[in-house]
Amino acid sequence: MSKFAVIDTETTWDDAVMSIGMVIADTETFALVDKRYYILTPFKDHGGMYSDGLYANGIKPDLECSREKAVAELQYFLSDYQAVAMFAYNAAFDYRHLPELRHLDWYDIMKVAAYRQHNPSIPDGAECCRTGRLKRGYGVESVYRMLSAEREYCELHNALTDGIDELTIMKLLNHEMDKYALARI
Q: What stretch of H or E contains 72?
């Protein structure tokens, strides 16, 4: 495997997927290779907690289309790069919302990033469970700030930028790809 994918979704108030962002990255360098962003119709008009993020920072989707078309295109996109490993932060959420992609090997970035034994940037005084997981403050925004020292960083809640940020977390953790075997869902 020379490439892998990172995915993020945003949902409506009724829990329907309204946008999907996916990035392809190199397994050795974790460098971003390619990206896709889809806004799903008609769901984009149904409203959701992060509807304002759909076009954040002037980001334009590759397509505004049906879910079926977006997923079909993403499957071709994955196939073009021979990417069979899918990563996401709190991957169970995206896995549950994208049953069409369950044939891939899914991994949860949070299962590495939120644990003291895997994330040396977790401060000594941070409260952790006996397992080593942070008791609080282990979302993308908090972990990104910890790892990057960018105290002003704010998650845009745009599926594409969030996917890129999640890839950045993986890069900043500086683990070999094998480390994520423990994060398989």
A: helix 67-80
- For the residues 124-150, what does the mean pLDDT come to? 95
22-32: average pLDDT: 97
Residues 69-83 as b or e (16 or more Cβ within 10 Å = b): ebbebbeebbeebeb
The DSSP letter of residue 89 is T
* Structural domain for 53, as ranges: 3-183
CATH of the domain at 98: 3.30.420.10
Q: Which residues does 174 contact at the CB level (< 8 Å), separation at least 6? A: none
Give the contacts of 10 (CB within 8 A, at least 6 positions apart).
Answer: 17, 18, 19, 48, 50, 53, 54, 157, 158, 159, 162
List, for residues 163-185, the tens digit of each pLDDT value: 999 999 999 999 999 999 999 99
Count: domains in the chain: 1
Distance of alpha carbon 81 from alpha carbon 1, whole angstroms: 9
Say what percent of the chain tops pLDDT 90.
Answer: 98
Q: Can you say whether residue 41 is alpha, beta or left, with left for phi > 0 and alpha for psi between -120 and 50 degrees?
A: beta
Cα separation, 6 vs 173, in Å, equals 15
